[in-house]
């Protein structure tokens, strides 16, 4: 089914600043945008198990995928005339999946290309871990080490960079500069979209 809404996904490795950036963008752009919250944080904070077992990880990623799809579709229906700013997207689960990313998509009867088409633009925030900077940021749901954050960042990058409208926002030791760079990219995306309406 063709979509009528406009979706921008903010993604990247843990500790990249995407959630903070999403909130700042919403404040800057006002009622033109609505944030689709991160499904994983909702599930984990609601009591969903965070396990090291491979079988539990797979069930968890399937649940996150389903919740993400439903959140996006619900927000698209509720806010028909707004831009959806998605805090992560359905492709992210493939990077957290234990094993090959293709297995993730096959287990959900979908494909990478089908999931990429859910989004109009991808803003990828590189993890601060590549600069050796702590990624804690006060998020109790974050358990990754710096090494694991870099590994996830690379897996996400290899998947999302295949999107036709992919924007890479590099790590910067100044978080303000990084967010400003992302905001500039976001503004370009929004302006281009609004010109088509």
TrEMBL record:
A Pfam family matched in the record: AAA_28
Domain of life according to the entry: Bacteria
UniProt-recorded Gene Ontology molecular function terms: GTP binding; phosphatidic acid binding; phosphatidylinositol binding
Residue intervals of the NadR/Ttd14 AAA domain: 7-169
Protein's UniProt name: NadR/Ttd14 AAA domain-containing protein
């Amino acid at each position: 089914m063709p979509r009528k809404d406009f979706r921008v996904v903010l993604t990247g490795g843990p500790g990249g600043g995407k959630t903070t950036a999403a909130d700042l963008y919403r404040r800057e752009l006002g009622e033109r945008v609505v944030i689709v919250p991160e499904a994983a944080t909702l599930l984990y904070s609601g009591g969903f198990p965070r396990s090291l077992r491979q079988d539990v990880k797979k069930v968890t990623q399937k649940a996150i995928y389903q919740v993400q799809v439903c959140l996006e579709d619900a927000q698209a229906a509720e806010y028909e005339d707004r831009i959806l700013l998605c805090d992560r997207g359905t492709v992210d689960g493939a990077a957290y999946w234990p094993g090959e990313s293709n297995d993730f998509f096959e287990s959900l009867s979908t494909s990478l290309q089908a999931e990429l088409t859910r989004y109009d633009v991808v803003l990828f925030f590189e993890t601060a871990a590549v600069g050796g900077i702590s990624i804690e940021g006060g998020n109790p749901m974050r358990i990754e080490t710096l090494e694991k954050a870099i590994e996830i960042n690379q897996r996400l990058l290899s998947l999302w960079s295949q999107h036709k409208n992919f924007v890479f926002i590099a790590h910067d030791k100044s978080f303000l500069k990084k967010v400003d760079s992302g905001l500039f990219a976001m503004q370009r995306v929004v302006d281009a979209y609004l010109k088509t309406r």
